[in-house]
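Q: How would the structure tokens look for this protein?
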Amino acid sequence: MAIPSAALEAGTGSAAAAGTVAVVAPDNECRYAAALVCQGWQPVAVDLAPRLRPPAASTTPDAPGYAHRLEHTGSLKHTVKSLRELEVSAVVAGSAAGIPLAERVARTLRLTGADPDASLLRHDRGAQAATLEQTGLPALRSVRTTSLAEALTWAENHRLPAYMLAPAAAGVPVEPVVCEHEVQISATWPSMRREAAHHSGDEHLVVAEYLSGRRYLVNSVTRVVDGQADHVVTDVWAETRASSGRLARTDLLSRHQLLTRALHMYVLRVLDALGVVCGPVTSRIAYAADRGPVLLSAVALPDTSPADRALREATGHDRLAAALDVVIPPAPGQLISAPTGHRVTRVHLHPRLSGRIDPWTARILRGLPTVAAVSPDLQATAPAAPPARTEVVLSSSEPDAIEGDYRIIRALERECLYLAAADAPHRFERPT
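A: Here is the predicted structure in token form.
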């Protein structure tokens, strides 16, 4: 008995929808479904069959809001047939794992999209560095390989002050590791390779030169105008790390700063080199004093976060709406408040002790004057175990107000935000 390659599962859809959009391999962080419904479109999820998913995504994401779900089991022909039956007129990737299939589906449906034969350029840092070097743009010296011997040979031949070891796949929750010599590369290699395979299904790693400059996050959207790709940088953020190397805060930069303009111009050239034709791209850039901006990685996905609303109020830019407007007609005009021009800071928290958040302290944190948003674990009324990323968003026209609340948040995190073990006394009494 033949098993169909795309099994359709009906859901609740809207008969009056303006059209249907396929979201390929949406994960639990994908927010396209709600955004599409808000714009009057019907979202359809294309889930990868279990054998095609990375081990970390072994179960179907719990992503509500889709009118239909279908499963891609390997046959592009059958998946496209199912999408045609649903009258799909646009395709977007719902995760890094969905980028290659989304580009193949878009081409088969004769929709605007990037070249699927060069899909690695939109989600693989090794392929990106090699392409930028070939085109003459500033790029990391690096090697992409699954062979430790090849990686060690490359490191020995280059003799750099320090190296960065990372998964080749961009957009996976695995932090790069800085290695000072080949011995550290050898020691870190097995665990890094396991983590890369677990989260991306790809065992390729990248050994690259380590640049000590500050890191920046650059978000962009590309649309086709008169047959040409038109790139627009929407927002630029500066990362600050603690002495331990952990990400401490991310600050929205003014578009009028000279540094912002330099990053802007560099990213426009990078997007052309990576073959970006339409849609969002999140780029991570290092700025070295002697070389200027250098791409660390790029992934063709929107960088959604709890700061999205504060970003929209500060700049007038709606990240998800902008990402969708390049593949579907924009929603009817709505009244949008004038941008406030506020400063926005994302404060990144790192659990200690038991890792469980004390709801009493979290309530104090939420009440600080500049707090604009918090991640869901900081809204719980019972002790909550935070996910991998916990953050607080600060927004204000007064820089000193943001800095004052930032110091308070760090004091709360240090002293009482996380509950101690059950047998350890708490340092503060709770009101009864």
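The radius of gyration is 22 Å.

The chain has three domains: 6-111, 141-209, 214-415.

Upvote if useful.
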